[in-house]
Write a structure and sequence with these properties.
Layout (H helix, E strand, L loop, with lengths): L1 E4 L10 H17 L6 E5 L2 E5 L5 H4 L7 E8 L4 H8 L7 E8 L8 H16 L2 E2 L6 E8 L2 E5 L3 E2 L11 E5 L5 H11 L3 E8 L3 H12 L7 E6 H15 L5 H19 L5 E2 L12 H8 L6 E2 L7 H11 L7 H4 L15 H13 L6
Parallel strand pairs: 5-6, 5-7, 10-11, 10-13, 11-12, 13-14
Antiparallel strand pairs: 1-3, 1-4, 2-3, 4-8, 4-9, 7-8
Helix pairs in contact: 3-4, 5-10, 7-8, 8-9
Bound molecules: adenosine-5'-triphosphate.
Amino acid sequence: MIIVRYGEIALKGKNRKTFENKLIENIKKTLARKGVDAKVRSTQGRLIVDASHEFSEIIRKVPGVVSVSPAWKMEYEEIPEFLSTHLRNMNPASFKIDARRINKAFHKTSQQINEEIGAFVVQRFGWKVNLNQPELAIGIEMIEGQAYVFFETKKGVGGLPSSTQGRLVLLMSVGIDSPVAGFLMLKRGVSLTALHFDQGHADLARQMIDVLNQYSSEPIELIVVNHLEYFQPYVTELERMGKREWTCVICKVLMLKKAEEIAKERSALGIVTGDSLGQVASQTLENLFLESSVVKMPIYRPLIGMDKDETVRIARQIGTFEIFVEAARHSCPFRPSSVVTRGSTYGLNKILEHFKSKSLWQG
Ligand SMILES: Nc1ncnc2c1ncn2[C@@H]1O[C@H](COP(=O)(O)OP(=O)(O)OP(=O)(O)O)[C@@H](O)[C@H]1O
């Protein structure tokens, strides 16, 4: 058995049942992808998943899950015998019993359980009790008259169940930031379609999506556009105009425009990027203002106020950092030696007017 705890969704008032059902459906779907047909039932703010303990690693990555405990289910009276066998090869410096009655129906209080089972362990193994920092914590949850015994509680990703908030298009590079931005939105229940402009690293983009898929109840569609072919005509015109320093701003403008087009096709409600204020020379408020002005839908930038080390910490946690390759990040062949850092609306409009005259921009 695996005990699954969820937090935020329990606070959702009358929506609670809908969210809970969605979480159950998502856990089942996630396990089904691993070929497991698991029974999941809800009871008193917990889900009980009838699956082998190894799947707790997978379940803890399902958005909405706050923590998981691989557990053994038994009658209360069977606990001493179970502990005698299960713990016989262990010798922790200290232990504690952490009992909880999930519904109050059971005839003993949590404190009585702590004392009774604790006294048994002391008598059987001679271990020391330490209530503050025990080396071994033995968890017991009494759920519907049955005891669930466990020895670890793994943190889940938290957030809200997948597919409860609508769809966004993620502009995803193979850098550190945008996969993290995607993860943060998945964690809030958003469905994603990813758009990647490929500079020869589409394999890395696919690997990023494989990692993000662990946090999504439905497989994320990855759309790959050839970066060179797509931007070459625009870069040629910028060269003709003597405006090569605008390349990076124009590149973002075109990426956003393409993302908006895909968002409309997929009935998505906005765009997600990994922009973080001031992180690179071109990520200024002026440039973000200009880039945002070309699309008519919301752009979500979940990393905008984050420091790089916070983003790196999340990337490491979720598993996208390992895929990131420094060399891949600087592979854009169009990058000019100096870039516009505070572009003006006037400057941008002049360039877009020129593109229009060349039938490169509909605007
Ligand atoms: N090749 C790409 N394909 C799709 N989106 C991209 C690509 N390059 C950049 N973007 C989008 O533009 C945002 C800003 O990119 P930029 O290169 O300026 O910053 P960054 O901090 O290096 O971002 P990242 O770490 O995500 O690459 C990215 O977070 C991403 O959303």
